[in-house]
Design brief:
The complex is a heterodimer of chains A (259) and B (458). Chain A has 259 residues and is an alpha/beta fold. Chain A has helices at residues 17-23, 29-35, 65-76, 86-90, 102-109, 142-153, 165-172, 177-181, 197-200, 217-226, 231-238, 246-258, and strands at residues 6-11, 37-40, 53-59, 78-84, 133-135. Chain B has 458 residues and is α+β, with helices and mostly antiparallel strands. The chains are: A alpha/beta (259), B alpha+beta (458). The complex binds iron/sulfur cluster (2 copies).
């Protein structure tokens, strides 16, 4: 029997939700666990098998000097490094600090700021090391996660779309919430992958899968303005779980200046 | 170092959510030091919530913890509704309980079967355990999935659901749609009964302390979203009074903020903030003389609200070997299974009485003020307090998750647990200590957003 590929899961600044998606694959878990060797997954197992690893799944963003070093080590011991979730691919919600003075943030939360060692910015993994694949979402979609792992195990390209959430709405037969109800929605500029959940629940997308390829953010903003959305709320909308992803960051900054 | 001295160091605690480390020092057969270290990076939620809209709090705070996002959504919704003077009741209130049932099932079964049970049976993980106990693991996975399905159905997805909002939901299900869950929930009810019986057969170390348990208590029901804060030592306060009684304390050795409960038998005065040094804290007294540690979570809820459990669930608890009071934290695995059963029964009850509400949410208009919410996350009470202005902009936020409230009790357990097991080999003792921590199902991601981190510089 050929040796099973070794898979490791690493956590940086995050909520654990993306790696939990693995444990939420109840139907697939035992099959997946049979096909691979789970070599390092502290959230699920106390057993640790030494590297190098065939696949490393990295959750979370880099926010401390220590983590900035640790990610280098993870890269060294990993054949393929796959980042999972908005924290790892865009800095996550904690990247809201990037727009403010982090020292002020520390003193709001902590009584003794001098104990806190943290970086000015929360940054995606790809700002630090080469990344072989980025899987989006806050959290990732678990079926996409299984697909990506499968693809890498079989040496093929993962089948994950780069078009917008709108395409998924059409496919699902959900009427457009902006057209039908005048509900502001980030779907047109957000990458597909979730299955267009929010509009199916009569809610506008809030962009948790991050920007799609070449999104037309300014035209969407103009549309939102026509729906009566205030500039301040536009800034908030783009400044969410993928606030530091370039197209969203630029759009929020543009409107912040206008305010 | 003499034969009876050892240092236990678990640099990366496994099977807890988040990152923590444990350090225990034993000298001459006595515990010299216990440190539960949290080295999860801070994410500054309370800071970046400032300036956001009050309607954004449920989605933003959900990201504190991927395991119990519903708890964060519920506590923040209640807090905002408290500020704005809105009450969500009737079927919308019932639906909130229903989605919480899903989270309890999913989170409890994850912990019982996948994180905690392997300790009792001596496996490194549930996946290792599955080789010899495949039926058990498969059944637990199916049960967990039914919890997740319930959250997904009502919330849109299992992690960070999108359908919860201040005032209610974006969309509510029809009666017929909800009926679709009944078959599975009936299976889940039976399966959780079996799980409870099975956990009752495990071997438990004889270990309990004179804890002060704290949980919500509601006049009519086992608590999820509302009630008074009640303890087994006489505390009985409204949620609004939380901060008058519970204080965060700075503990030097761990650079962490821990929550403590003020003693009520002494005249009111701000509590001592002294560090602990290396003597074990005595329960009920804790650091200063004026405050003590306390215990939140399934055991606390069970001990305070046993009389609110339906007969059938009380009977199941008895069948699994529990009385109306359970003080052994190792037996929390049974209590979690019993609460899972309760969640299944409660879900079935809510569904059977459901009528689709006319509107999916109550309108909530912002008004300036301060509001609080406290709900029962799977791991215990989760407190939120916000101050907002008349435009609905958040001016100030405070969030106290369950794990930070239990942290001192966890350390206190270790101070008392290690001496009883001092003759075990180092590996055995290490594992036992980990198990003692996992009794609390600690969710370190939650705890950390305000815990201090110690970064070792070489
Ligand atoms: S991307 Fe979202 S779900 Fe994933 S770890 Fe970060 S906060 Fe959690
Ligand atoms: S519709 Fe948008 S916000 Fe909602 S889950 Fe999908 S990507 Fe995330």
């Amino acid at each position: 029997m050929p040796k099973k590929p070794k898979v490791a899961v690493w956590k940086f600044a995050s909520c654990d939700g993306c790696q939990l998606s693995l444990l939420d694959c109840e139907d697939e878990l035992l099959a997946v666990a049979g096909a691979i060797e789970i070599a390092n997954f502290p959230e699920a197992s106390r057993a640790v098998i030494k590297g190098p690893y065939d696949i490393s799944l990295v959750e979370g963003s880099v926010t401390t000097p220590h983590d900035a070093e640790r990610i280098q080590e993870v890269r060294r011991v990993s054949k393929f490094l796959i980042t999972i979730g908005a924290c790892a691919t865009a800095g996550g919600i904690q990247a809201l600090r990037n727009f403010k003075d982090v020292k002020e943030f520390i003193s709001i939360v902590y009584a003794k700021p001098e104990y806190i060692s943290t970086l000015e910015k929360s940054t995606p993994i790809a700002e630090h090391v080469r990344v072989d694949f980025e899987l989006r979402g806050c959290p990732v979609n678990k079926y996409q996660l299984v697909e990506v792992i499968n693809a890498f195990l079989n040496g093929r390209k993962p089948n994950t779309p780069t078009y917008s959430v709108c395409v998924e709405c059409k496919r699902r037969g959900t009427p457009c919430v902006m057209v039908a109800h005048g509900t502001p929605c980030l779907g047109p500029v957000t990458q597909a992958g979730c299955g267009a959940i929010c509009p199916a629940y009569h809610r506008g997308c809030y962009g948790c899968f991050g920007p799609k390829e070449t999104p037309n953010t300014s035209s969407l903003s103009a549309w939102w303005r026509r729906l009566g959305v205030k500039e301040q709320d536009l800034v908030r909308a783009f400044r969410g779980f993928n606030a530091y992803a370039e197209p969203f960051r630029k759009e929020s900054e543009a409107y912040e200046q206008k305010q | 170092m003499s034969r009876n001295s050892k240092t236990i160091r678990v640099d990366y605690l496994a099977r807890v959510e988040g990152e923590g480390a444990l350090y225990v020092k034993v000298r001459e057969n006595k515990v010299a030091d216990v440190k539960l270290k949290i080295f999860e990076p801070p994410r500054f939620f309370e800071a970046f919530l400032r300036g956001r809209s009050f309607t954004e709090a449920p989605d933003i705070t959900a990201r504190i913890c991927g395991i119990c996002p519903i708890a964060y959504q519920m506590s923040s919704c209640h807090a905002m509704e408290d500020v704005c003077g809105v009450k969500v009741d009737g079927q919308l209130r019932a639906l909130r309980r229903l989605i919480y049932c899903g989270e309890w099932i999913e989170s409890h079964v994850l912990h019982v079967a996948m994180l905690h049970a392997p300790d009792f049976l001596g496996y490194e993980s549930a996946i290792h355990m599955a080789k010899d106990h495949s039926d058990l693991v498969k059944k637990a996975l199916k049960l967990k999935k039914i919890g997740n399905d319930l959250v997904t159905f009502l919330g849109g997805r299992e992690i960070h659901p999108i359908n919860v909002r201040v005032g209610g939901f974006y969309k509510v299900p029809t009666k017929r749609e909800l009926q679709g869950l009944v078959e599975d929930l009936k299976w889940a009810r039976d399966a959780s009964y079996d799980l409870a019986l099975w956990t009752g057969t495990l071997e438990f170390p004889d270990f309990e302390q004179d804890y002060e348990f704290v949980a919500l208590r509601h006049p009519d029901e086992y608590p999820f979203n509302e009630g008074r804060l009640v303890s087994t030592k006489g505390l009985d306060i409204a949620i609004r009074e939380y901060e008058e009684y519970f204080v965060e304390e700075h503990v030097e050795h761990s650079n962490a903020l821990h929550s403590v409960l003020r003693r009520r038998d002494l005249p009111p005065q701000s509590p001592s903030l002294k560090g602990r040094g290396s003597t074990p804290p005595s329960l009920g007294e804790g650091l200063g003389e004026r405050s003590g540690n306390y215990f939140v979570g399934p055991l606390a809820r069970y001990n305070i609200n046993f009389d609110k459990l339906p007969r059938s669930v009380q009977k199941a608890a008895k069948d699994a070997g529990l009385g109306p009071v359970c003080k052994n934290p190792f037996q929390s695995i049974i209590v979690r299974s019993v609460e899972t059963l309760y969640a299944c029964e409660e879900a079935l009850r809510i569904i059977s009485e459901y009528e689709m509400p006319e509107r999916p949410s109550v309108e909530v208009h912002p008004r300036a003020g301060v509001g609080c919410g406290c709900t029962e996350a799977p791991r215990g009470i989760l407190y939120h307090r916000y101050r907002i202005d008349d435009q609905g902009t958040i001016l100030d936020a405070k969030i106290v998750p369950p794990t930070s409230q239990n942290q001192k009790t966890i350390e206190s357990d270790l101070w008392h647990f290690v001496p009883k097991n001092i003759n075990l080999s180092k590996d055995q003792l290490t594992w036992k200590c980990e198990q003692a921590i996992r009794n609390y199902d600690p969710c370190i991601s939650c705890a950390t957003h305000f815990l201090k981190i110690e970064i070792e510089r070489e």
